């Protein structure tokens, strides 16, 4: 199956830090020399990124905008970059919630985490699919890449809502890929383990986690290798063992269910 190396223009959502930034720069460095559109909220970080190459383009985007703004943003994006044929959803937030103390649960924060990690992605996919399906009709492949987590497979109880959002995105990715069979639009899912990032800084857990997380450069190399190979599912590090034990074969069964449902 075609991998990221055939993509002409790649949008990386959440490219201002961490996994998103590292993937954007690694994909930009591929021999195929794609244009990479880096998207995120922080304009100053976007400006810093695009100064390094004329194949890096900035696109300011707030994942927590309402559905009308997200839809118009995707339409503007396609107008500015009609060659867009891949999107990587690398944005995400993570919060600690202790339901033994329900009175301390910030429901607004919980809803924000759900929207950032899951709901907004489904809205953006819906808005971009007409463009990708049009490319498909002309014979051009396109990619939708979601980044979930090993915690989508085995949840970490200290971040229950984060795990639920990533499990939802995983399930959505499998179903979307099954529905898009027969088109040139593919859904690829990356499962990171615990990876070096800014995700945990606000929790105060970074010093402890940094003792055993996967270095960002090692993760990035493994993830990009999978994207170039054209893998549909790309578990990395500890996620490989969890994927093999609990997830292997589920996608194939989902595709069979989709075919039965559609009468094929």
TrEMBL record:
<dbReference type="InterPro" id="IPR036291">
    <property type="entry name" value="NAD(P)-bd_dom_sf"/>
</dbReference>
<comment type="similarity">
    <text>Belongs to the short-chain dehydrogenases/reductases (SDR) family.</text>
</comment>
<keyword id="KW-0560">Oxidoreductase</keyword>
<dbReference type="InterPro" id="IPR002347">
    <property type="entry name" value="SDR_fam"/>
</dbReference>
<dbReference type="GO" id="GO:0016491">
    <property type="term" value="F:oxidoreductase activity"/>
</dbReference>
<dbReference type="Pfam" id="PF00106">
    <property type="entry name" value="adh_short"/>
</dbReference>
<protein>
    <recommendedName>
        <fullName>NAD(P)-binding protein</fullName>
    </recommendedName>
</protein>
């Amino acid at each position: 199956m075609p991998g990221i190396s055939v993509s002409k223009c790649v949008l990386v959502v959440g490219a201002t830090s961490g996994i998103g930034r590292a993937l954007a720069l690694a994909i930009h460095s591929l021999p195929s020399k794609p244009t990479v559109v880096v998207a995120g909220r922080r304009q100053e970080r976007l400006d810093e990124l695009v100064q390094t190459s004329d194949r890096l383009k900035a696109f300011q985007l707030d994942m927590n905008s309402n559905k009308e703004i997200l839809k118009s943003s995707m339409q503007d994006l396609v107008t500015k970059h009609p060659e867009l044929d891949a999107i990587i959803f690398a944005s995400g937030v993570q919060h600690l919630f202790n339901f033994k103390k329900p009175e301390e649960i910030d429901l607004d924060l919980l809803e924000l985490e759900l929207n950032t990690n899951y709901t907004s992605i489904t809205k953006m996919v819906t808005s971009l699919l007409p463009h990708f399906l049009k490319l498909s009709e002309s014979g051009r492949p396109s990619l939708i890449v979601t980044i979930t987590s090993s915690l989508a497979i085995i949840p970490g109880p200290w971040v229950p809502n984060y795990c639920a959002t990533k499990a939802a995105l995983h399930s959505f990715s499998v179903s979307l890929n099954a529905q898009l069979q027969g088109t040139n639009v593919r859904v690829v899912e990356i499962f990171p383990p615990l990876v070096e990032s800014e995700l945990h800084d606000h929790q105060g857990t970074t010093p402890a986690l940094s003792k055993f997380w996967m270095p960002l450069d090692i993760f990035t190399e493994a993830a990009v290798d999978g994207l170039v190979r054209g893998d549909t599912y790309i578990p990395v590090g500890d996620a490989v063992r969890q994927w093999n034990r609990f997830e292997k074969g589920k996608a194939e069964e989902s595709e069979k269910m989709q075919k039965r449902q559609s009468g094929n």
